Amino acid sequence: MDLRGIDTPRLEWTGDCLVIGLFEDAIDLTGDLADLDQKLSGTLAELIAEAEFKGKEGSSAITRVGSNSPIRKIAVVGLGKADGLKPESLRRAAAVAARLGKKEKCKTLGLSMPVWNSDPALTAQAIGEGIELALHQDTRFKSETEDKGAKLEQIDLLGLGGQDAAITRARQICLGVILARELVAAPANIVTPITMAETAEAIAREYGLSLEILEQNDCEKLGMGAFLGVAQASDLPPKFIHLTYKPAGTPRKKVAIVGKGLTFDSGGLNIKPTGSGIEMMKTDMGGAAATLGAAKAIGLLKPDVEVHFISAVTENMVSGRAMHPGDILTASNGKTIEVNNTDAEGRLTLADALVFAEKLGVEAIVDLATLTGACVVALGDDIAGLWTADDTLANQISKASELSGEKFWRMPMEDKYFEGLKSVVADMKNTGPRPGGAITAALFLKQFIKDTAWAHLDIAGPVWTDKENGYNSTGATGFPVRTLVNWVLN
Ligand code: BES
Ligand code: MN
Ligand code: ZN
Q: pTM for the whole thing?
C-alpha cells in the first residue's frame, strides 16, 4: 500500500472512495463540501441524514455514488468535538477510514482530514500511523488468510502535499510497533530467548546498531544472581541483550530503555493456576518486544541521541532445577533477595538489568514491564502505570504520551510501603502484600538504581487487547513503542 500527501482539492480527487473527516459540531455542508455535495447530486447530504451521522468519534458512513461520477463511493468519518481534536483523534479516524476502505474493497482511497494545531507534519504522521497500524494483519499462524478480493493499493492524504518526510517517519515508527506486536503475539514455542537474541542481531545488522549478547557464563561473571535464579529452571539458555544506537556526531543525550523479557511466565513453583491467564503468559516479554521495536524505529529514524536497549531474556519455568520458594539470591549490586514467590520473577530479571543499565552512565533509564496483575486491577487494560521520583522525566514521558495517544497514569512511589518487602533473612523479599502490589513492585526495582533519573512503566494491561480498539486489532498492540520513540526524539 502506497501512502502519499497530495494537494488535489477534494472536489477534484478521483478514485474508489473519498473519505471526509467531520467534526461533531459541524456536519452541515458548507463551502467546498456544499459544492462537492452538489457535484454528487446531493449524495453526501443524503448519506449524513440517512445514516444519522453525527460526527461522533469512531463513527462512519459510506455509500455508492452514481456510476458516471469520478469517485465510486463517498464516506464520512467522525472526529468528535472540534475543540477536542488531538493527534489521537486523527489516528483513530484514519484507522476507521482505512478499515472501511479495505472492507469496501477499494483500491484507491482519498482521505480529507483537518490539520491539527496548524501542524501539517504531525497531522500527516498521526494519520499515517493510524492507517499503517489499522491495516497491519498478523496471519503468520493461519494456514489460510481470509483476505480475498481487491487490496488497498493507494491512499492519498488530501491537503498534505509536501509531507512525505512525516509519512515516512510514521511508517518507520510503525515498523517498530509492528515488530513489537509480532513478537508479543507469537507463542512461547516460537519466540524464545534464542530467537529474541536473533531478532536483536537482525536489528543490529540491518540498522547499524552495535550488539552485545551476554550468555549465562557472562551473566555469572557479572554476578547477576537474580536474573539467573529465574532462568535456572528453563531448558533454554538465558540471553542478556544489549543493543546500542550511537548517532554519527556527538549525542545530544544518552539514555537507556530496559524491557522485561519473560518469553513465558509459568509462575515457577508458585505455578499459575488455571484461570489465572497462564496461557497468555507468552505476552510477558512485552517490555522486551517494545524495547526491540523502539530499537528498530530508532535505527531507522537515526536521531542525535545515544540509546541503549537492554533486556534480560529468559523463561520462568518449573523443573528439578527450579528456584525453591524461599531461596535467597544475590543481585549484581550485591543486594540479597528472599524469593518468597517465584511468580514475582520479572522484578528479579529487571534488578540485574537496571544495575547493568546504570553502569553505562546514562542520563535517564526507563524500564517497561508486564510486571503486575495489580496494575491491571488498578488502571484497566488501556492505561499503563508510571512510577518515577523525577518530575522532569515524568513530564517528558507525559508529553511523549500526549503525542502518541498511549495512556499512562502517574502512580505513587510510596517509600513507606517498602516495609511490606522487609525480610527476616535477606535484604528484601521479592513480594509484598496484595494491596498496593504494583507499588511494592516499583519500590523493589528502586533498590537497584542508585542515583540516575529513572522511570518504571507497568504495561501489563495495554500490551494486549481482547477487542478491536481504534488502530489496534484484537491481539498485541505494540504498546508503548511510539511513546518511547517520542521520548527519545524530544
Ligand atoms: N507477568 C506477571 C504479571 C501479569 C499478570 C502480566 C497478568 C499480565 C497479566 C508477573 O510476573 C506476575 O506473575 N506477577 C504477580 C506478582 C505477585 C506474585 C506478587 C501478580 O501480578 O500476580
Ligand atoms: Mn510472574
Ligand atoms: Zn511475569
A: 0.98
